[in-house]
From TrEMBL:
Lineage: Bacteria, Bacillati, Bacillota, Bacilli, Bacillales
Signal peptide: none
Start and end residues of each EAL domain: 24-276
Residues of the full protein shown: 395 to 670 of 670
Protein name in the entry: Diguanylate cyclase/phosphodiesterase with PAS/PAC sensor(S)
Originating species: Ureibacillus acetophenoni
Amino acid sequence: TVREAGGNSITSLSSASHKALHRKSLIEKRLLLALDQENLEVLYQPQYDLSREKIIGVEALVRWEDEEIGVVSPDELIPIAEETGLINDIGSFVIEKACNQAVEWSKKGLGLKVSINLSVREFRDKNMAKTIMNSLTNTGCPAHLIQIEITEKFALEAEAESNIIKQMKILANEGITFVLDDFGTGYASFRYMQLLPIEILKIDQTFIHSLMMSDKNQKLVNGIVQFGKSMNITVLAEGVETEEQLQQLKQFGCNYIQGFLISKPVNEKEIERLVK
Ligand code: C2E
Ligand code: MG
Ligand code: MG
Ligand code: MG
């Protein structure tokens, strides 16, 4: 397979990069099959409102355990899927699943919002808004139950950027909420705050993990929370693992938290148990 991909360069590849290439093509091949057979799963992690003291939503996170290669973490899976274009199929799968789940919970009176992760790259697809609206229609899911978390790990060319803005505005007008994920670590956090219809800002977990380590870190996080307030934007802190972090964030006036302290990502039945 390396010969196909790299031609004569096979002799110059180190054994480490040879292995990496092999794993990548194996993942690609198995992922195609998994998507075809719907062998992916979705787990949900609660999002907790600090002032109302209850779970108000969940984040949908893709999970994949392949028969041949075992568990492939999203951190490995998503970049490969983005490179190969299979990210759109993962996106469609997760959206459909999340919409069905949101409807089911709504029928049970749980009223949970479901957040979906989409990479800014997926919005290169000019039909993205249409695809998402179709999923809502097909599943009977009201737009206000769905949130879209976007991250921006790459610089985008101007044309792709203007398409993203257009697609997002269509969806925001339909009632979908946009969340800016991994805030503070992305490529253009403030630029996207200015251009996109963002309603929730998610402070990256690296800032939360180091929160109690120094006065400087606390000032930084407090600064982000106050910035959110002044922009009239809801602030969510992700990666909250300790009661101490929770109390500090509450004192800053942070709106929502998410993290192992409340719950790790779990299946839908477990979410229902946690909410009750
Ligand atoms: P993310 O959207 O920032 O999701 C948060 C990640 O942090 C999740 O990892 C979650 O399991 C983990 N996490 C949550 N609370 C804690 C905590 O208290 N401590 C620690 N140490 N970790 C915590 P996961 O599920 O492995 O996902 C990693 C990333 O992969 C996500 O980061 C997201 O960017 C991406 N991802 C996951 N599912 C999807 C998907 O369906 N589509 C796309 N495009 N990306 C996805
Ligand atoms: Mg996320
Ligand atoms: Mg994040
Ligand atoms: Mg992340």
